[in-house]
Amino acid sequence: MLPGFSPLAFGSLLAGGTSLALALYAWRERTEPGSTAFALLMVGSTVWSLSYAVALTAFDPGTRVLMEVPIEVGKALVAPAWLAFALGYTGRGEYLTRRTVAGLVAFPAATLVVVSLPALRPLIWTNYRVTPTLGAATVSYDPTLWHYAHAAYGYVLVGAGMALLVDALASHTRLYRRQTLALVVGSLFPTVAHVKRTFQFGPLVAVDFTPMALSVTGLTFGYALFRFDLFDLVPATSYRGRRGAIDDLGVGVVIVANDDRVVELNEEAKRLFGGTDAAVGDPLAAFLPSDVDAEMRTGDGGTFDLDVDGHRRTLEAVPSTIDDPRGSPVGRTIVLNDITEREARRQRLDVFNRVLRHNLRNEMTVVLGYAELLAESLSDEEARYARTIHERSTALADLGEKARGFEEMLDSADVTTSVALDDVVAEVVTDVVDDAPDADPDVSLDVPSELTVETNEQVLTTVLSAVVDNAVTHNDGPSPSVSVTARTATTDGGDGDSRVDDVVIEVEDDGPGIPDDELGVVTEGEETPLTHGSGLGLWLVQWGCRWLGPDPEFEVTENGTTVRFRL
């Protein structure tokens, strides 16, 4: 007898249709992370639901048991595909190797063979019989150990996938959380229904509600798909982006557990330690020299030399603690910077500074002394040559003094004090005028006596000296005119009220102006053999102003130059 169409069959058909639509859409978007596995998941849900709908109309026991084969095909696809989707969706698709996939489907494939062969079916169930429910050909049976093992295997895969989604739910932004929450909720309904059927409890024990529950899954997945752009905005982007950024930083990153075992290395760290025999899981001491390893334990870091690709490299190790949400330390990260080139540049600068500070100054003192003697003892024409030598030697000696002053400025840059601006400006102007005996500059000062700033006096003095000296020295007029002013600048505090924010210093002269090529080199920050400055003055101004505040402003007109900087 064939009764009327059962509502149970209708529910399964609805679930199958929904899953089929989602499978087709996901396949169209298969280039996105996790979309191919999602399509396979929906195909498995479709086969399972539609096969169960047909099976519910087959009251003949022989026909009904044969329908278990396509039902099992759908089941075999769902759990592995769900885990594969979760891995791809959360950015861990690299774990889906051929060997992994083969391992995931091995048990479901074996179960499919058992269900297909009558001689093997007692391994999974006995006493298989049709027990109609609500006008549908539902079945009852006595499950065996294989049946429970197969169900447990599916729960492990589904649980692992849900764990990945829950991790994404807790770790990512609100937009990811909404779509991930929809996926978690959607997967709960068929899981609960399958547990009910597996362990045969509750009402209507002969009914497998899992295919009907898959219709709820389809609706929630569809909601995530169309409401939250499931395949356009996925946690995989954030996860893979962070992993890629760590690998592309250009520095080595080592993650160490509390027991000092290395648990992860990024690609650069693997390259740096490629000459060692150590690997992930080994103690940190196996990677680092013993003295550096001890410094890592105290959190101080350190530098050490290591052979990398056949070359000696100098590495700087910078450790930091990893804390759990409660603030308890769970490990450390160690950032490894290859500072070989930086150290080489530092050594070269040290040598050049020594040459400028000592050798050049001492030798030029001798040259200046002999040039003075020659100028006094030679005839007028020959004395002119000697005076030219003296002038050029003086300029070269001054260049060395500027370099020495810059080094002193760097050594004291971290110290700030309250500085009376009028005293500093007056002292700078006096020193510049005294050092320019051939000029008769007209220097005016407009600096309020009460104006003080919290800054580094050495840096401020160096910058002011360079600007005022440039205004006086590079002016061909008989009496260069220079004015130095200082004022407070007010800015909008954001609530409509103005507040004192900066001190602005302006040095204005009536000279020919700073050449464009000189300014261009400094503002662009690079010298080449074809485009370069004629000295250190403007560079000192640029470097010093960057410590004091914003970059200096240069305003060049036909009437002269105005240099403006802020404190």
Automatic annotation (TrEMBL):
Keyword annotations: ATP-binding, Kinase, Membrane, Nucleotide-binding, Transferase, Transmembrane, Transmembrane helix, Two-component regulatory system
EC number(s) recorded for this UniProt protein: 2.7.13.3
UniProt cross-references to SMART domains, sorted A to Z: HATPase_c
Alphabetical list of SUPFAM superfamilies matching this protein: ATPase domain of HSP90 chaperone/DNA topoisomerase II/histidine kinase, Homodimeric domain of signal transducing histidine kinase, PYP-like sensor domain (PAS domain)
Chain residue ranges for the region called Disordered: 472-499
Pfam families tied to this protein: HATPase_c, HisKA_7TM
Membrane topology label: Multi-pass membrane protein
The keyword Transmembrane helix appears for this protein: yes
Subcellular locations according to the entry: Membrane
Broad class of the protein's primary localization: membrane
Reactions the enzyme catalyzes: ATP + protein L-histidine = ADP + protein N-phospho-L-histidine
Bias kind Polar residues: ranges: 472-487
GO cellular component, as recorded: membrane
Chain ranges passing through the membrane: 6-26, 38-59, 71-89, 101-125, 145-169, 205-226
GO BP of this protein: osmosensory signaling via phosphorelay pathway
InterPro entries linked to this entry: BphY/WalK/GraS-like, HATPase_C_sf, HATPase_dom, His_kinase_dom, HisK_dim/P_dom, HisK_dim/P_sf, HisKA_7TM, PAS
Domain Histidine kinase stretches: 355-567
MF GO annotations: ATP binding; phosphorelay response regulator activity; phosphorelay sensor kinase activity; protein kinase activator activity
Protein name: histidine kinase
Lineage start: Archaea, Methanobacteriati, Methanobacteriota, Stenosarchaea group, Halobacteria
